[in-house]
Model the fold of this input.
Amino acid sequence: MSGSGPGGEAAGGQAAGGQAAGGALLVVGDVVTDVVAVHPEPLAPATDTAAHIRTLPGGAGANAACWAARTGASEVRLLARVGADSARWHEEALLAAGVRPRLVVDPDEPTGTVVALVGKDAERTFLTDSGAALRLCPADWTPSLLDGAAHLHLSGYLFFADSSRELALIALRAARARGVPVSVDPASAGFLAALGPRRFLDAVTGVDVLLPNEDEARLLAGLPEPAGVARAAVELSRRVPLVVVTRGAAGALVAERGRITAEVPAEPAGALDSTGAGDAFTGGFLSARLAGATPADAARAGCRAAARAVTRLGGRP
Done:
């Protein structure tokens, strides 16, 4: 199932910091169904725990795309794979959010599902069934998706399965051949550890922007838990030109080519659910960069979007 087909506008010129101004944002990533369960009291093993439960559209790639559209990106496209069970629902949700979806319907697997357990502190634990999401494959790619695109964003989840990783690498090579900047959100410290940090870094060679959280940054930099996140950001920025590390309530760090160039504070917010806060940061950051913002100002825009995200259930605007 597809939404509106990709457009053919010419990408705009270069803006501050080397990011092309204008043009579309293409996100290649995941669409999943989120089951968000907020439980004010600790989980009680072997019995009932009262919770506030909602079923919502989600997925790191889809969330980031929706936040980019909400925060001002003029055109946002999304390539993802879903199951027939909820394809229409997801397509309608994306269109309503201002995203132009190209959803491939998987013939065998249902849409991926994530159960998010959210405690009193608003922190979440995920139970993940990837379903159709990571079954994206090279056959799902078409070069016309990049027509008029000024930036490609790849969800890190794509790199955790053979088929979707192959698709991600094809998209990355195609973008680089056209001179389109590429960003990657590493997505999951747990999945990174299982894949291997070195293997992930080798796969994303050539990307322009890396957007890890603190745990992912330390893991990718090969640093122990007590090591400062600034050191991890600096190390990673020697490999990827621009690294922006999200730090939750501590804001974000911007590192460029081996040095910290900005420390951005978080925006104050009454946190209800941290699900999708990193995706909101990504969407706000990329939208600002497409509008010509410097990395530091784009990080501030990302923090503003993340602050809005944590005040509501689920990962979408």
Q: What stands out?
A: Residues 1-20 have pLDDT under 50 and may be disordered. The two ends are 23 Å apart (CA to CA). The CA atoms of residues 288 and 297 lie 8 Å apart.
